[in-house]
């Protein structure tokens, strides 16, 4: 998602002076993926396990718990995690194409191998690596990740075989049958439907004989976008009283930042192709789509009933007791004594004091369905943060930074509740 943001909004990120930082952040992740992909059909997918990790409240400097590593391979497949990693590396290869062509080529090699592995040896990785079952169960299965990977590989290589894969398997794999209102670390359908539908206007694709499949992809993409905008006659995404999209109580902000990103990207597509979004309750122009995405970003940054920025380090008021081991315990520079698992839980975890370290840029889980938020370390559903929360938000903020000065465009303050 961070790579996608850089692909779409690299100029805006550059003008904010953050382009090098974005590339460093992406490479930090893709370097790890390269190391984890030790053989064409072997991917190391987890280090440590959730049970022993959750038993410990400990800063990383002191960790002594078992760090067993787990892999997927031919006998223990993991098509979802292989497909997702392939998609990530393919997207990153586009980012590095000009600045680091050798690295870009290396990423592409790994991405193609991983896709082939995931497609040839099919299975869910939570069936092969049982320790993930209680923490990262693959509810949507692996077919969405294979379609997602194929589309990113097509974007990275221009090889028609990858696009043909996504089109020929669109029905069997649910790409044109699932109408879904959630895009998340597990469920990729809305995003891949949006990518596929944006390819429809490209001239060379019209000759492939898949116009109907492209149209069906677009129909499902529109269903998701219209659900976010509350423009479907059927199922729409719930909202809090103040207008925040609300999917579920645990880490709801991931769905908000992801939706805001997809809406932002699609608003640009609508503007560039001179189209309007077709919803049950009427057509929607690109400005309205982007204004709603902005309303979600504004809410995250403090335009909400709590007056709270949910992006740690931003604004005058943000969560001080994030559910994060490294943040909540003094660093080794300040306290050189060994802090064990139970000692962390006994002393540091229950403290009412603010965390000694701020994880700047972390987007926490956010408020409940009534816009209420409790800044409590033990309230992990609301105060835990994830990298995939922030990654999507980068592109949204970059876009909004870029259009800030355009005459009349996004000038009108828009509260989500309006």
TrEMBL record:
Domain of life: Eukaryota
GO molecular-function term, one example from the UniProt record: cellulase activity
Any Pfam family hit: Glyco_hydro_9
Residues annotated as the enzyme's active site: 323
Signal peptide region: none
Catalytically driven reaction(s): Endohydrolysis of (1->4)-beta-D-glucosidic linkages in cellulose, lichenin and cereal beta-D-glucans
Keywords attached to this entry: Carbohydrate metabolism, Cellulose degradation, Glycosidase, Hydrolase, Polysaccharide degradation
InterPro entries cross-referenced by the UniProt entry: 6-hairpin_glycosidase_sf, 6hp_glycosidase-like_sf, Glyco_hydro_9, Glyco_hydro_9_His_AS
Record carries keyword Iron-sulfur: no
EC number, UniProt record: 3.2.1.4
Record's keyword annotation contains ATP-binding: no
Domain Glycoside hydrolase family: 1-397
Alphabetical GO biological process terms: cellulose catabolic process
PANTHER family: ENDO-1,4-BETA-GLUCANASE (PTHR22298)
Family classification: Belongs to the glycosyl hydrolase 9 (cellulase E) family.
Name assigned to this protein: Endoglucanase
């Amino acid at each position: 998602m961070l790579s996608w943001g850089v692909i779409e909004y690299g100029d805006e990120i550059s003008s904010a002076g953050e382009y090098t930082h974005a590339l460093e952040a992406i490479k930090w992740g893709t370097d790890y993926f390269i190391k984890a992909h030790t053989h064409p059909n072997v991917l190391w997918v987890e280090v440590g396990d959730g049970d022993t990790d959750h038993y410990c409240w400990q800063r990383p400097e002191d960790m002594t718990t078992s760090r067993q590593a787990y892999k997927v391979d031919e006998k223990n497949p993991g098509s979802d995690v292989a497909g997702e990693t392939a998609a990530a590396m393919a997207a990153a290869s586009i980012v590095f194409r000009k600045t680091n062509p050798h690295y870009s080529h290396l990423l592409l090699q790994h991405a193609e191998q991983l896709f082939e592995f995931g497609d040839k040896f099919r299975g869910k990785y939570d069936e092969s690596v049982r320790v993930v079952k209680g923490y990262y169960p693959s509810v949507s299965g692996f077919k969405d990740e294979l379609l997602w990977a194929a589309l990113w590989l097509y974007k990275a290589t221009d090889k028609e075989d990858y696009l043909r894969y996504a089109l020929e398997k669109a029905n069997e794999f649910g790409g044109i049958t699932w109408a879904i209102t959630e895009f998340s670390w597990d469920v990729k359908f809305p995003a891949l439907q949006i990518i596929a539908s944006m390819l429809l206007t490209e001239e060379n694709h019209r000759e492939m004989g898949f116009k109907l499949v492209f149209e069906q992809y677009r129909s499902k993409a529109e269903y998701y976008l219209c659900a976010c905008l509350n423009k479907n006659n059927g199922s729409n995404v719930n909202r809090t009283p103040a207008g925040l999209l609300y999917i579920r109580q645990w880490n709801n902000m991931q769905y908000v930042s992801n939706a805001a990103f997809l809406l932002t990207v699609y608003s640009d597509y609508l503007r560039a192709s001179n189209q309007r979004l077709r919803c049950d309750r009427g057509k929607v122009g690109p400005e309205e789509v982007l204004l709603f995405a902005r309303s979600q970003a504004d809410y995250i940054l403090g335009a909400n009933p709590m007056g709270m920025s949910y992006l740690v380090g931003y604004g005058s008021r943000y969560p001080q007791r994030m559910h994060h081991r490294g943040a909540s315990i003094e660093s080794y520079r300040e306290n050189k004594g060994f802090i064990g698992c139970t000692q962390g839980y006994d002393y540091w975890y229950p403290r009412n004091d603010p965390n000694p370290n701020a994880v700047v840029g972390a987007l926490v889980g956010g408020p409940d369905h009534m816009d209420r938020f409790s800044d409590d370390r033990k309230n992990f559903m609301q105060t835990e943060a994830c990298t995939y929360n922030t990654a999507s938000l980068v592109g949204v903020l970059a876009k909004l930074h870029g259009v800030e000065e355009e005459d009349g465009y996004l000038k009108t303050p828009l509260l989500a509740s309006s």
